[in-house]
Amino acid sequence: MEGTERRAVIPREEIIPRMGLLSTDTVVDLGAGIGYFSIPLAERASRVISIDLEPKMLEILSSRVRASGIRGVEPLRAEITMLPIADGSVDSVLAAFVYHEIEDRKKLMAEASRVVRSGGAVTVIDFQKRETAIGPPMSERKTPKEVLRSVPDDLTLVQRHETEVYYQLEFRKR
After folding, report:
1. By three-state DSSP, how is residue 137 classified?
2. pLDDT tens digit string along 112-161?
3. Cβ(44)–Cβ(29) under 8 Å?
4. Contact 113, 152 (CB under 8 A)
5. For labelling, which of 7, 92, 118, 173 has a CA lying 20 to 30 Å from the CA of 151?
6. C-alpha torsion 126→135→100→9, nearest 10
7. What is the pTM of this model?
8. β-strands 90-96, 47-52: how paired?
């Protein structure tokens, strides 16, 4: 989850700037795990709500946040398709490498859209549907086209970035 190989092929220092965050933003990191994105997001935004269902992941994340001295990361145990977050209350939602894991992907995207404010952003990052050194089995991977089919009407694709390993889709909420 944090290894050198992952950092080389999934460079946070390139991915996060494409999100266009402001220092005053509140970001929701869906499926945050041990904080691969949450901790560096907190260096750019004022608040990061790190959602994960697995208590052990949240314990490790909390420990890493304390050790780093970074403020503004709030670990929260919740299902990412049923967020305990008010409508339109966040500036940005990140769904990094979780899209392929969710059975009801339309519900995931609708929930992300629900919590993000008008003018806010939803970012989906996932593995390309091709053989790569890291990532889930091919049968689990979803293409960018599949993501686009699950997006609600109030989200518009504004940026698309692709590498051999992953794609990053940036949506803006009307």
Report:
1. coil
2. 999 999 999 999 999 999 999 899 999 999 999 999 999 999 999 999 99
3. no
4. yes
5. 7
6. -10
7. 0.96
8. unpaired
